[in-house]
UniProtKB/TrEMBL annotation:
Family affiliation: Belongs to the BetVI family.
Gene3D superfamilies in the cross-refs: 3.30.530.20
Organism: Sphenostylis stenocarpa
GO biological process terms on file: abscisic acid-activated signaling pathway; alkaloid metabolic process; defense response
Family matches, as PANTHER family: BET V I_MAJOR LATEX PROTEIN DOMAIN-CONTAINING PROTEIN, OS08G0374000 PROTEIN-RELATED
Protein name: Bet v I/Major latex protein domain-containing protein
CDD domains in UniProt: Bet_v1-like
InterPro entries: Bet_v_I/MLP, Plant_def-hormone_signal, START-like_dom_sf
Stretches assigned to the Bet v I/Major latex protein domain: 1-154
Keywords, alphabetical: Alkaloid metabolism
Domain of life (superkingdom): Eukaryota
Length: 162
């Protein structure tokens, strides 16, 4: 069984500013700091933020889903502003998923605006197909909203100091 979920969020900042957050480790640090109700921790276990970096995500107690897992950065395209991660250990893999990929993309909308597009793609074994119901785009949507607010706050701070 194959599935795909998507979420789009307008960001009222230039694509380059949004990518400086989404294309780096900063997004994980922001999520870990600002969303303790969703993530108990986000730890770097390998790498420096480039392709091959491995993060361990531990969800907060009571959050429905996979508990904790490790994901690896499998693609970072700074030109197209696309970052992809795949679960490589634990979590969804223990629930019969053979693929769980999250893609962050920042699309230029204009000089002062951009669109964040988050996508979850997954494949799950037929005998575990009922587990597909635990896949939710909500953590991606929550992350996008948090990032939007953070970016707008930073933009306002920069404009006020000029």
């Amino acid at each position: 069984m194959i599935g795909k979920l998507e979420h789009e969020q307008e960001l009222h900042v230039p694509a380059s500013e949004a990518w400086d957050l989404f294309g780096t480790l900063r997004i994980g640090q922001l999520v870990a700091q600002e969303l303790p109700q969703l993530f108990q921790s986000v730890e770097i276990t390998e790498g420096d933020g480039g392709v091959g970096t491995v993060l361990k995500l531990t969800f907060a107690p009571g959050v429905p889903g996979p508990g904790d897992y490790k994901e690896k950065f499998t693609k970072i395209d700074n030109e197209k502003r696309i970052k992809e991660t795949e679960v490589v250990e634990g979590g969804y893999l223990e629930l019969g998923f053979t693929l769980f990929r999250v893609r962050f993309e920042v699309i230029e909308k204009g000089e002062e605006s951009s669109i964040f597009k988050g996508t979850i793609e997954y494949e799950v074994k037929e005998e575990n197909a009922s587990n597909a119901s635990i896949v939710s785009i909500q953590p991606v949507a929550t992350t996008a909203e948090l990032a939007k607010n953070y970016l707008l706050k930073n933009k306002a701070s920069k404009e006020a100091s000029q």
